Amino acid sequence: MTGSTKLLGAADVAEIVRSRGVEGTLDELIERLRDALGAHDPATVRTPARAGFHYERPALGLLEWMPAMELGRVIGVKTVGYHPANPTGRGLPSIVASTALYDPGTGALVALVDATLLTALRTGAASAIATDILARPGPTVLGVIGCGAQAVAQVHAISRVRPLEAVLVHDSDPEVAASFARRTAFLDRPVHVLAGDDRQRLLAESDVLCTATSVDVGAGPVVADGEHKPWLHVNAIGADFPGKCELPRSLLARALVCPDVVEQCRAEGELQQLDGQRCGPDLPTLVQQRERYEPCRDSLTVFDSTGWAVEDLVAAELAIELAGRFRIGQRFELHAPGADPHDPYEELV
Amino acid sequence: MTGSTKLLGAADVAEIVRSRGVEGTLDELIERLRDALGAHDPATVRTPARAGFHYERPALGLLEWMPAMELGRVIGVKTVGYHPANPTGRGLPSIVASTALYDPGTGALVALVDATLLTALRTGAASAIATDILARPGPTVLGVIGCGAQAVAQVHAISRVRPLEAVLVHDSDPEVAASFARRTAFLDRPVHVLAGDDRQRLLAESDVLCTATSVDVGAGPVVADGEHKPWLHVNAIGADFPGKCELPRSLLARALVCPDVVEQCRAEGELQQLDGQRCGPDLPTLVQQRERYEPCRDSLTVFDSTGWAVEDLVAAELAIELAGRFRIGQRFELHAPGADPHDPYEELV
C-alpha cells in the first residue's frame, strides 16, 4: 500500500465516465457485475445486512452503510443517504452516496469515491442483468414510473440489453416527467409522457416496466393492478425502506419475484408484501442458473431491487481502475504514519 | 451546507493538537466528553451497536464501523481497524481509524478526519473521566500493562486528573516497554519498567492500573489475580473483541465494574467474564450521578472501556472546530451537485 488515500469526487467520476464513454462505462459495469454475480460465493464475499439511521428531522431521510468484504482482498463500505426533499429543497439528488475502500491488511482507508452517479449506474446495471435474463428479446416498449435520477440510468441500462421501441413515462410531478425526454435525448428513442390517469395504459403497453419513485411509506402501489402483457417484466427499484412498496400485491402474487438480496427484500423491498414462501431466485442465482430461468421470459416476472453492497464494490473498483488508466483524481495523506507506531505523540510534544 | 467536504489528515490533526497544545487539547476533550456524557439522552443521541468484519487474512484483524447520531444535527461514523501486526509488519499503529461526519439534512459527507490519534485521545479522555470519579485523590502510582500507542494517551490523560508519583510499566515486548519512558518523557514522571515476573508487583503497588494490550483472544488475563491496594482503580481498555479479556475473573467478581456501553462490554469487554447480573453504572450514569459513586473510591473499581461512538463524535467535532480556528485542513468537492438533481448524466453526454 502507498499509505495514501485515493480521492474521486463527483467531477472526477464524471470525467472518468466521459473518458471511457458513458456507454462503454455502463457496458463494462454490466459485464463486471455479471461476472461477480456469476462467481459469487458467500464463503468468500461477505455482505452483512445494511443498517442505518432513519429520521424525520431536520428532513425526512435515512443514512445507511452497506459493507462488503471480499475475503483477503478488499473491504468496501458505501454510505448512502436518501432524502426525498433534496431535489426540490437543496438542488441535490435524493440519493447521495460515497464508497470507502479499506485495505484488510492494515485497516487503512485506501479510496473514497463519490458514489452518487455510481449508485445510479450500478442500479441500472443490475436491472439490465435481470432484464436480459427475464424479459422477452426483441423490440421493447419500456414503461417508467418515477422519472428522477435513477430512471435515467435505468432506461439507459435497459437500452444496452434490449432495443427500445418507445419509452412511456409517468411522474407524480409533471415537470419531472416533461423533462425526461430531454434528459434521455442521448438515447434517441421516442419518449411519451402519460398523465396521471394514463398510468394504466403504461402498464398495459409496456414489455418492460421500471418503477423508480419516491412514494411515501404506506402510500403505494404507484400503479393499480390491471391489464398487462403476459410477458411483462418489471424492475421495481424504488422500494428500499420498511413500508415503502411500489407494486400491487396482487400483481406480485402471480409473478416470479426475484430479489437481489432475499432478506433485505423481505425487510425493505416488494417482498414485504408476500409471505415468506413465495420468492424466486435471487440475482446471483439468476445469473448462475440463467438457462433454468430464461423460460420465464414468457410470463410475468419482477426484479425486486433494493441494492446490494457487492454492486457498489464492483462499481467503485471499476471507477478506481479507470481513474488510474486516465490519470484522474488525487491522493490524500489521510493516515500518514509517523516513524514510531507506538508513539501517537511523536510530533506533538 | 457548503456542499464540500472538510478533510483532516493525520498531519492536520497533529498540527491542530500542536496549535492548541497537547495538554489543552486533551483537557478540552475531557471537558467536552464529560459534558456530553452528563447531558446524554438516548432519545436524542442514538448509538446503534457497532458491527464489522473479523478475519484472519491477509492479516489477523477487524474493521468496524461505529455510528452515532445527534438527532437533527449530525451523524458521525468512525471506521476503525484493529490489526495487531501493524506496528511490527507495516510501521502503522495497530489501531487506524477515520471518522466521517454527515449532514442529516441531505446525506452529504461534510467531513472526513483521520481518527488514529483522536481514538487514542478520546480513549484516554474516557479513562480520565472514570478515574476522576472512581480513584482516590492525591499522589498516584500508575501501573501500565501494554505500552503501545494507546498507553501513551492513557498515562497522559490520567496525569490530567491525578498527580502521578511514578509510572510502573510492563509490556510483553521488552523493547516496547523500554521505549515507554522516552515516549512519555514530556510528562516528566519517573517510569519504571518491570520485567515479566514483576507484573504482580505492578498490581500490588499501583493506585490506578491501565491495561492496554493486544493479548490474543482466549489468552488473557494479562496479570494474575493477587495482592493490590484496597482502593485500586483499573482502566481496562484492551478488551474490545469477543473472547479478548485482560483482567482475572476473580478480580472482576469483587470489583464495581463500570462499562462504557453495557451491551458492548457484555459482548466484547471485561463484562464477558461476569454473569448478566453483576454490572455497575455505565459511563454516562457515572458522570450524571457522580456524588453517588465517588464513595466507591475506597474500594476496588474497574472501568471497562470498549470505546463508544459518542466519544468519537465529540473528538471529531472538536478537531473540526479547532481546524476552523487555526485554518488547518482542506476542502474537497466530493459530491459537487450538477444543475439538475434529476439528471445524473448531465455532464456525461
Please provide a written account of the structure.
The structure is a homodimer of 349-residue chains. With 349 residues, chain A is of the alpha/beta class. In chain A, the strands form two sheets. In chain A, strands 1, 2, 3, 4, 5, 6, 7 and 15 form an eight-stranded mixed beta sheet that branches. A seven-stranded parallel beta sheet of chain A has the order 10-9-8-11-12-14-13, sandwiched between helices. The model of chain A has no long low-confidence stretch (mean pLDDT 95). At the A-B interface, helix 1, strand 3, strand 4, strand 5 and helix 3 of A face helix 1, strand 3, strand 4, strand 5 and helix 3 of B.
Brief summary:
The structure is a homodimer of 349-residue chains. The first copy, chain A, has 349 residues and is an alpha/beta fold.
Topology (elements, then pairings):
The structure is a homodimer of 349-residue chains.
Chain A: E1 5-8, H1 10-20, H2 22-38, E2 45-46, E3 51-55, E4 61-70, E5 74-82, H3 86-90, E6 95-102, E7 109-114, H4 116-134, E8 140-145, H5 149-159, E9 164-170, H6 174-178, H7 180-183, E10 191-193, H8 199-205, E11 208-211, E12 233-236, H9 249-253, E13 256-259, H10 262-268, H11 283-288, H12 290-293, E14 301-304, H13 309-326, E15 330-332
Parallel strand pairs in A: 1-7, 8-9, 8-11, 9-10, 11-12, 12-14, 13-14
Antiparallel strand pairs in A: 1-15, 2-4, 3-4, 4-5, 5-6, 6-7
Helix pairs in contact in A: 1-2, 1-13, 2-4, 2-13, 4-5, 4-13
